[in-house]
Amino acid sequence: MNFRYSILILLFSLNAWSQGGMFGKDPIIQQENFDKQRVHWGYFLGFSSYGYKFDYLTVGQDVEVNKTTGFNVGLVGNLRLNEYFDLRFEPGFYATQRNLIFPNIEDSVDRLREVKAANLHFPLLLKYSSLRTGNIRPFLVGGVSSTLNLGSNAKAPDDNYSNRFRVRTWTQNFEIGFGVDLYLEYFKFSPSIRGVFGLNDELIRDNDPNSPWTGNVESMKTRAVFINFTFH
């Protein structure tokens, strides 16, 4: 599924619920005491789009990053701090792929590197919610996270000269996003969108310092967008 379609689905869902009877002029209040729980749990499903931000040692041709749409699934633990703030832990599994094209390499096979990842993602987030209006409550969320890439190839002795692209096993990130809590009859539904910004260089250089794949790269950091649909 194209990632732009995922965003359209999110916007359509919000629009449909906001125009329905539950969020009209005089809605029936659902799940009135849900947010008063000290701790509650949930799960999420969603889509993700991962890319890389490259910085270079010298001016040259940029590495082209072609993103694909991945899928997400995970759990949510929510700790209520007060009326407006919650602390959240959202461990999840994120499957994705990034296709890197190196324009300075002539051979069509060597020019392309498919960077597949099976990530275990561990974010610790602070959620700020506005006042509830009827059955809708917008929120902002931000925090830090660690990501374990199960397909990093970090310990492989081979490098790009053997068609093996290597990245770090662990990366650190900060995240920021927004969403809305929708209070339905039997549960709370929370669609959200979040940006993820890698803090550390993830690239493992080839053994040859003049490698056409890694020789001119100063740093390579994750950039990602998550769309999650959370059920509490």
How would you describe the overall organization of this protein?
By secondary structure, the protein is mainly beta. It has a single domain, classed as Porin (Beta Barrel). It has 2 helices and 10 strands. It has helices at residues 3-19, 108-111; strands spanning 39-56, 64-67, 69-80, 85-89, 92-101, 112-129, 136-149, 170-183, 188-198, 217-231. Strands 1, 2, 3, 4, 5, 6, 7, 8, 9 and 10 form a 10-stranded antiparallel sheet that branches. A hairpin with a 6-residue loop joins β6 (112-129) and β7. The chain is elongated and about 65 Å long. The two termini are 25 Å apart. Mean pLDDT is 89; it is low at 17-21. Pfam families: OMP_b-brl_2. It comes from Flavobacterium urocaniciphilum. This is Probable protein-translocating porin PorT.
